[in-house]
Amino acid sequence: xxxxxxxxxxxxxxxxxxxxxxxxxxxxxxxxxxxxxxxxxxxxxxxxxxxxxxxxxxxxxxxxxxxxxxxxxxxxxxxxxxxxxxxxxxxxxxxxxxxxxxxxxxxxxxxxxxxxxxxxxxxxxxxxxxxxxxxxxxxxxxxxxxxxxxxxxxxxxxxxxxxxxxxxxxxxxxxxxxxxxxxxxxxxxxxxxxxxxxxxxxxxxxxxxxxxxxxxxxxxxxxxxxxxxxxxxxxxxxxxxxxxxxxxxxxxxxxxxxxxxxxxxxxxxxxxxxxxxxxxxxxxxxxxxxxxxxxxxxxxxxxxxxxxxxxxxxxxxxxxxxxxxxxxxxxxxx
Length: 334
What we know:
Beta-Lactamase; 5-stranded antiparallel sheet
């Protein structure tokens, strides 16, 4: 049976029966049906934004912050549109109305959303939207999180632009190390560079932030110990609330842990800096004298800076190759 397309909308609801004006995001891949449904919703006094696919819906959803998402299941069934969009708008409460064709199955995860099956009337659609809608609001803490996310994005963009404008390797890595320490809340941060002329298993302290370089000079360069190995091999991120309690900590002589006089470290975070071709340039390391100081957010930001640093290092190396000078041929001054 052909799909019923809503006819032109009737006159708006009479005065005295006016519904709350809502911001609606309508997702439907069929242009004729989408336009008709939009007219129905607008005739009910709603502000309507339309999207034809997943990408448009995600972009619009975070820009307009709708009160209600009205989504045709056929337009989003092949991708987790509803979950992805709601995740992006997690700090807000929005209603969801699913538009269904005949016996189209609904994913179990969407079973609690309001559902309406075609053919439906204008009044049925407006009633579902009104019943589902919640006022656009967010708690104070949620709004603070949203502002924080926006500030983080702006900061990371600024760092990316700053790093790509620098060609001298030490200068750009010092900037990346300083920025990463500030973003993560670390007491000190360091970038250890995997230099081609280093002895196997040893790395050069290239930049340091939050502590004088003299704090490391008397200890020599780190070895590829069990704690450092995952970072220097580019295998994974290491985050510990208390490094002194880690099973991998303190296994090897002569120090069996941090040598006497070392900067105090309880909270520990290490992120590999790896190129797209999987070459390990080195690692960003973060420390704090208090335990449990690095959160998942701190890890996420450190990873973002490490990715930007990897791009900048690759660019610096290519430029150095064109000039015929080795990249990373001098140590930073901290």
